[in-house]
Amino acid sequence: xxxxxxxxxxxxxxxxxxxxxxxxxxxxxxxxxxxxxxxxxxxxxxxxxxxxxxxxxxxxxxxxxxxxxxxxxxxxxxxxxxxxxxxxxxxxxxxxxxxxxxxxxxxxxxxxxxxxxxxxxxxxxxxxxxxxxxxxxxxxxxxxxxxxxxxxxxxxxxxxxxxxxxxxxxxxxxxxxxxxxxxxxxxxxxxxxxxxxxxxxxxxxxxxxxxxxxxxxxxxxxxxxxxxxxxxxxxxxxxxxxxxxxxxxxxxxxxxxxxxxxxxxxxxxxxxxxxxxxxxxxxxxxxxxxxxxxxxxxxxxxxxxxxxxxxxxxxxxxxxxxxxxxxxxxxxxxxxxxxxxxxxxxxxxxxxxxxxxxxxxxxxxxxxxxxxxxxxxxxxxxxxxxxxxxxxxxxxxxxxxxxxxxxxxxxxxxxxxxxxxxxxxxxxxxxxxxxxxxxxxxxxxxxxxxxxxxxxxxxxxxxxxxxxxxxxxxxxxxxxxxxxxxxxxxxxxxxxxxxxxxxxxxxxxxxxxxxxxxxxxxxxxxxxxxxxxxxxxxxxxxxxxxxxxxxxxxxxxxxxxxxxxxxxxxxxxxxxxxxxxxxxxxxxxxxxxxxxxxxxxxxxxxxxxxxxxxxxxxxxxxxxxxxxxxxxxxxxxxxxxxxxxxxxxxxxxxxxxxxxxxxxxxxxxxxxxxxxxxxxxxxxxxxxxxxxxxxxxxxxxxxxxxxxxxxxxxxxxxxxxxxxxxxxxxxxxxxxxxxxxxxxxxxxxxxxxxxxxxxxxxxxxxxxxxxxxxxxxxx
Length: 779
Description:
Number of strands: 37
Strand order of the largest sheet: 9-26-25-24-10-11
CATH architecture of the domain at 3-268: Alpha-Beta Barrel
CATH topology of the domain at 3-268: TIM Barrel
CATH superfamily of the domain at 3-268: Glycoside hydrolase, family 3, N-terminal domain
Shape: globular
Radius of gyration: 26 Å
Distance between the termini: 56 Å
Strand content: 25-35%
């Protein structure tokens, strides 16, 4: 292969493809992890899957493996060979903007769920690209901040899921935007060569996050194989110049080329098509529905309020109660195929249910819908005309349709107001844009506004007002002048009547006249999104006030929390039941109804600790840092370890969750596993359980450990080391068995994994604080 051909292979040609060069075919990538969007934000609809936190809440690798298989099928429907997933960064703080994409605060649980996900996807001949390697755990200053993490903390916490992914045979890995201890991850030789390829033996492809390459020779020498997206900024001509200057050599080029060739072979890229369709697969809908229920966590259930009495009158209340929110925001978003709405699903079950929103929590105004023509034209004269029913335009990087990133657009069409009077019209845009309605300018955004939308490339919403007549089509025109792009272009126009109705009072009136109120609260894809962290765990808008007001008048109050991360619950003592459903994917309506009426049990347990207040959390004193460095000063005390070590009572502990039946438990048994030389290889933990209730149910037996010896460098930190999920029918007993590998008890000391001598306590329980029994093994 000629020099120019080898160089061409090492960068994308557009947002989603590597080039076809010689005998190496093009490779298509697609965003994940909660679906497979394809190459177009407005393209064919896709199945929407439970978010990463919901999958981890199931504590069920077998089920997650099925989810992965379905995602592999979805990838084929979009002709994608690489799924940019899973996201395995840890929940260092509950306000991380992409926490919902990730899985857990715990490295072992994350590793177990991620490896099952990867095995499922790759069983379908599709590569996973596990991300973001490493320390890209929050969004503040993510493009440049240096995560300051000592090696022991890296090895024992943040690298664990990536190492497990490599052991599971993952085909590719994506570098983080951030620096790690001063060096960008995409050019970090210790990380990409010494650890990833050397210590772990990774033979796959390393891909940069989009616009996350910062150098030419340094990145290639460090082990970065592909710069994304294209056209290249640091490869191409720049890489040829570096080669001619002797800064990189044939060995660097050839190694990367061969890894890309292997990726193409592993995924059958040479035989792939280019069509993108909506799969509409009944198997996929079924597994999403099961996974959504399996990840739902029953946090509180006083007097067995759930399952609901299906004969009573139900008040369904909340800003998104009618539909639910299936997903978070950012690159994880898809256009959901046939999403199941909660109100529709409950009525389909012939439940007597009425609905009131209670309040609004939109961070920006709801998207305007109507009939619109969109005309794009770039500075080369390329022109594209499209039609849409949603006043939203998103162009990420260089798209495959030939329109350059430096384009302009005009949008024209009509929408029909459902109410008359004053309307608020909102505009968000990357760059300048103007909205006119019936020929009059209503709102304008000037160039240079950044932060608050479009991954930080665009600014907060600007709002104007206009008088509209109900039922009369309003003519709308949007002008979006051409401008240079540094990664993303787009605009969104929203609108809603300015109305002054007291929505809480209307909800309270309905609740008082009903037998039970189901109040759905939470966040949405604007509050939890890529590009920015939350600033608080308080529910947005007047939702806390709404819950308290409803609980004061309703005979029974069930709160359903539809959020991807922990939220505060100041009303927790005033309500009868709380069900955490996360962002459960496109089968939200039927899955949540299944749980509420008792067709299935809420099968999940918390993969993250729910704090009483943000000030109690491990990184509170250190996050977000100064924008230059992010000190991980809490060290090894992430998540539940922190609360245990500092004796802080959380709102709900890691691992907590209730079911619809009851169990009695025997005493746990520890069986040491040793090889032929007598060396300890692991510990088997058995726990007998008996279902004493009147319906089948499952329990997740959780195993923790704590070192009790006197090694000066090993603290008595509580570690989650494994679990076993068991379903038992009424009146029967079964034994749950958890196999704990030796490595789970080891510490990184003096440059090696070491099992310190002395006693190791093993705790078996139903959460990090609900311990059923203990045992000790001694080394």
